[in-house]
Hints:
The complex is a heterodimer. Chain A has helices spanning 21-32, 63-72, 102-114, 135-146, 169-177, and strands at 8-16, 35-43, 49-57, 76-82, 87-98, 118-122, 126-133, 150-155, 159-162. By secondary structure, chain A is of the alpha+beta class. In chain A, strands 5, 6, 7, 8 and 9 form a five-stranded antiparallel sheet that branches. The longest helix of chain A is centred in the middle third of the chain and has 13 residues, at 102-114. By secondary structure, chain B is α/β, with parallel strands linked by helices. In chain B, strand 15 (390-393), helix 16 and strand 16 form a beta-alpha-beta unit. The longest helix of chain B has 15 residues, at 49-63. Chain B is globular and about 75 Å long. The model of chain B has no long low-confidence stretch (mean pLDDT 97).
Amino acid sequence: MSDSASKSVTLVVLVENKSGVLARIAGLFSRRGFNIESLAVAPTDDERFSRITIVVDVTTTTIDQVVKQLDKLINVIEISELDPANSVERELLMATVSAPSVESRREVLDLVQIFDAHVLNVGFDRLMVSVSGSQRRLDDFEALLGRHGILEIQRTGKIALSELAKVDPGDQRTDEAT
Amino acid sequence: MRLNGAQAVLKALEHEGVDTVFGMPGGAILPVYDPLLESSIRHILVRHEQGAGHMASGYAHATGRPGVAVVTSGPAATNMVTPLLDAYMDSIPMVCITGQVALPAIGTDAFQEADTTGITMSATKHNYLVTDVDDIPQVIHDAFHLATTGRPGPVLVDIPKDLVLPAAELDWYEPTSHDLPGYNPIMEGDPEAIAEAARLITEAERPVIYSGGGILRARAAEALLELAEMTEIPVVTTLMNRGGFPDDHELCLGMPGMHGNYTAVMAMQEADLLIALGARFDDRVTGDRGSFAPDAKVIHVDIDPAELGKVRHAHVPIAGDAKLIIGGINASLREKGGTDAQPDRSAWRQTLSGWQEKFPLTYAPHELGDRLKPQAVVEQLRDHTPDDTIVVAGVGQHQMWASQYWTFNHPYTWINSGGLGTMGYAVPAAIGAQVGQPDRMVWAIDGDGCFQMTCQELTTAALEGIPVKIAILNNSYLGMVRQWQELFYEERFSETNLGTLPDFKMMAESMGCVGFRVDSPEEVEATIQKANEVDDRPVVVDFRTLEDEKVYPMVPAGASNSELLVDPSQREQQA
């Protein structure tokens, strides 16, 4: 994921909430040779639709083709390409880390504090922790936890929304008028 | 009106204007076949479900209306996969209804259960698994809409048996709208792009119109003719658009691609502008992509936005309906002054006519004692059948010779399997075409390999009195594969000799057809005439052709189109 040669784009895809839609998308990606880096699916406030956040590896394919092919799927309603500079992204990570000694437990807890993470569960020789944030932040947290021995880890894949406007377009017009 | 699900399926099909369905009953679809006895719809009972699919495809090709196939679950549905993908690759409007095991049995590996929607997901434009009897009218209405609009294609509707049993009832309704929030095919082209296209056309010195199957799907042949005649720009017609521009027109260069005419291939190679209309830069047209038409700017018109830029960068991409967009380009060109505003392209025309004179399609003449020349058989068929005869081909050498040596002067007179290259397509597709166009003459030109894949459907045609005619160019080989083995595998003919069995004349007769066998050139015309006279049942003519005849010109696989191999008799001139 952090491979500097690879390039990825985040797509937010609004789809009909019908059975088989995810299979259609996954099938399209494998058939056309597109690579998915991560994928997150969740219902929207409108039960007829779901929103899928897909991080696509565009090292070998053009994002234009990916979007156009996705758009051909009958159940796909809307596709937006999120520009990382103008979007807010989050991912959740959960991990069980080995912490058999007081010392190692202390070090893990330090990391938890620094990263604004949480301890979810405590075992006699291990800790279960979680953190949310940008992919980069999670990568860093994962790397540092790695020193202690990660016994199990899960990441959700990225979800993202467009950044909100900082200026009321109405105000802007008023400014121009004056 | 209360109907059960089975009645609703038929009512919905009737509501869509369906007059004929091709199919075969079986367990899961059985309830739908009961009310069929009272329906106005004609059912053609096939011998194998693949036949039903290709018949529906041939019917759609010949009529422009969606072809419909109805089959049962499991193996019937899997037998339908090839025709579905074939229709998907060639953008043929088709609706296929499959039976499915009852809803509670789905996922239990029930008898004749197949994950039909899963299996056909990538072989259809869209598919449905109906889960509520009330949805039947709406889903079938939407299926026909999807199949026939935008880029046409096959749509499959999978219906579990419990939804069509008499106990499953619904209040019949005629859907007035579509439940397709994500489906909005673009029709109108961007006016700015259309103006830009007209500007590029007016500036081009060596333009070529690269017309594809989209011309036929959009019913845009007239608009194309107007564009070509106004600008006097030459036209190549791809394998999918043979007949979309008249072969006997002076601007027609014929078929481009791997087995295209020298002039059509080289015109594209040397062009400074390719006007691609409903074509998709298929690898059989471009040869090696990197060296294809190196100097050409591209105007690309396609109803499917995903085709624009997929293979070749387009300087002017225009998504939308070919007929509307070509009409728009024509209007824009007229405004600029029509023919008079076009630059002097006499040098380009001279180059082209020089090539045409030097490198026409040709083959060595028949030699006494040899088997027939397949090209000569195609020419004789062409010369002794009506001008509007519908020609249907399978896949291989015979298909290429048919495309090369027939003169297609009308749209919708050429039906073949282009994209998928499905051997065995011709017999069932020809039957479907004949059902759709009962007053026209339909000749399939088939190979002996192809014929043996689907010829059992001739029994279907005989029983239905469908007078389709089949010419087998029988060289006892998988001819195209043999050609490759001869040219690229040092004549090591591995598993391409099909032998001299069966006796196709006797086989045809046993299936209720008229059968002929032709060995000598003198018999060709007379036999064609005899075949033409049969109007109440199918005819099969077994033309015994030369086994080592090859299709030329030919671009070797992966080579540049500039390395086109012409007929051996022209090689010296080429060098």
